[in-house]
Amino acid sequence: MTTIVKCPTCQKSVEWSEKSEFRPFCSKRCQLIDLGDWSDESNKISTPMKSGELTQQDTESLIEDIEAMLAKNDDSFFKE
Ligand SMILES: [Zn+2]
């Protein structure tokens, strides 16, 4: 039996298993959004980062911002 959880950031279904490295998040990106790790490094994003106060629309615009940021930074963002 497989447990499916919802990504807290984007509500996507995530399999709760070893395969899902970032569970309960669907991806590292969503994990970072939730933690707000990257927010200190960028002044470009004006959306409030208080966890739990984001609306779905906020989250979507955040993801768009991050994708724009990723497009500029590419490799560096995901380096471990
Ligand atoms: Zn997600």
From TrEMBL:
InterPro entries: DNA_gyrase_inhibitor_YacG, Znf_NHR/GATA. Pfam families: YacG. SUPFAM superfamilies: Glucocorticoid receptor-like (DNA-binding domain). One of its GO terms (biological process) is regulation of DNA-templated transcription. Zn(2+) binds at residues 7, 10, 26, 30. Binds 1 zinc ion. The keyword Metal-binding applies. It comes from the Bacteria. GO terms for molecular function: DNA topoisomerase type II (double strand cut, ATP-hydrolyzing) inhibitor activity; zinc ion binding. The keyword Calcium does not apply. Keywords: Metal-binding, Zinc. Its cofactor is Zn(2+). NCBIfam families: PRK00418.1. Belongs to the DNA gyrase inhibitor YacG family. Interacts with GyrB. Inhibits all the catalytic activities of DNA gyrase by preventing its interaction with DNA. Acts by binding directly to the C-terminal domain of GyrB, which probably disrupts DNA binding by the gyrase. This is DNA gyrase inhibitor YacG. The gene is yacG.
